[in-house]
Structures are given as C-alpha cells and as structure tokens.
Amino acid sequence: MRFTNTNDGYWIITGANSGIGHALAGRLDRLNEKTILIDKRVDNLGIFKNSAIFQADLSNLNEVSGISEKISQYKIFCLINNAGVGFRGSLDQMSMERIDETVDVNVRYPVRFTKLLLDHLIKDKSVIINIASSAAYNPLPNMSIYSASKAFLVNWSESLFYELRNTNRVITFSPSGTFTNFQKNAGVKVGDKGERLLSASCVADEIIKAAYGRRAIVILGFKTRALLRVSRFLPRKFNIYLWGKLFEKLK
C-alpha cells in the first residue's frame, strides 16, 4: 500500500520532559513542527512553541485513559511511544513498586495508549514509532525486568506492524545505550560524559528520519548491531553469561 499521510498533524511524544523525548521536542520545535508533549513532569517543556503540553503519570492507567481523551481532538501525524523506565538490580533486590512501575510504563502504557487512540490513528494514517532498546534482544542479568519489558515491546510492535500494514506505518526503534538521566535513575554507572554512549540529539535525529523513511525496524548503534549478530550464533547459556559479564562492567 502507498501511504498518503502528509505531515500536517501533530507529533505526540511521551516522556518529553527529559532525555530522548526532550531532544525530540527540541528538534521538532526548530523545524516548526506541531507537537503534543506528555510527561509526569512538564517543567522543561514551556520553552517549546507550537506545542500542547499535558501532564500525566503513564504508570497510572486511569491517567493514560484520560490523556487519550484530551488529545482526540488533534490530527496526529506521528505517535512516538517514548516513555520508559528501568532499574538496576537482581530480582531479590528489586522492590515490588519498581517492578510494577517498570511493567506499567514499559508494557501496559504503550499498548493501552495505542489501543485507545487506534481508531484515530487509523483514520489519520498516523505513523507509530515504539521506542524499545537494544537490551530487548538478549537477556540482561541484574536488569532483567527492564530487558524483558523491552522484549515484550519489540515483539508487540513488530506484530502491530503486520496488523496495521494496510493503514499505518509502525516502526520499532531500538537505540543502544544513550547518554541521558536514564542511567543515573536506573543505577547504571557510565561515567560523567557517557563517551561510549549515543547522544540524545543523535537518537532524536534518527527517529525523525525513520518517521519519513521506509524501514520498519531500526537498531541504532554499529557496535550493538555487530554484537547482536554474533550473539545469535552463540549457545543460549553462553549468551546469558556474556551479557551478564558485559553489564557487570557498568557497575
């Protein structure tokens, strides 16, 4: 099918107050695009023009429902399910609160939010971009809830691509480690400048490029793609040890 959606609608960005979401909002603002910016905190969003700002806790499913009703009046060019959380720790170290928050934000929110908007998205022939992670493609000991939640997101998003193939473009976008507040909040040490990580502005540029491109699956980061290709040929048990040892270096 040839998609006819032209960019005369809004870009919806969840998790817009910081990190990749904030970089996206900035890039689109400079391009004079219209945006709908959603986050639990919105103190960094007042600087953007042509934006509608909504405050919502996406771990609260009632607030997810409420926010979907508020934005139903807008024409949507692109929905970017960007919001996500993660916490370092083995299962015995993780509190139930952190487990619930990870599952609610990384799994339940994107599915529920997209479902509530689905008729609107189909009518507008909107692009849907789900921001996953390179962590989705292998087990990640000591951050297992996060990697498993992103694995769910990848499988759901790729399935959604097929389900909506006649009406919408669905893109599964998985960046490798990106230098944001995520590492600090998750308890992962990466150094003060994040030299080995992608920049949020670089990732934002690639997401915008993907929205206008043809690719349905994007894994961003050359070293990550190379390592993922190699790991496919390794025995599963060895693969678990490999990723466990690699992640231990980030303590």
**Architecture in CATH?**
3-Layer(aba) Sandwich
CATH class: Alpha Beta
Can you tell me the residue ranges where pLDDT is under 50 for at least 5 consecutive residues? none
Instruction: Give a count of the beta strands, DSSP E runs of length 2 or more.
Output: 9
Q: Regarding quaternary structure, how should these chains be classified?
A: single chain
Biggest sheet, spatial arrangement of strands: 3-2-1-4-5-6-9
Radius of gyration: 18 Å
Indicate the CATH topology. Answer: Rossmann fold
Q: How helix-rich are the residues, as a percent range?
A: 40-55%
The named CATH superfamily: NAD(P)-binding Rossmann-like Domain
Strand proportion? 15-25%
Describe this structure in words.
This protein has 251 residues and is of the alpha/beta class. The chain has a single domain, classed as Rossmann fold. The chain is 45% helix and 16% strand. The strands form two sheets. A seven-stranded parallel sheet has the order 3-2-1-4-5-6-9, sandwiched between helices. Helix 2 runs parallel beside helix 3 and helix 3 packs parallel to helix 4. It is globular and about 50 Å long. It starts with 9 loop residues before the first strand and ends with a helix. The relative contact order is 0.14. The mean pLDDT is 88.
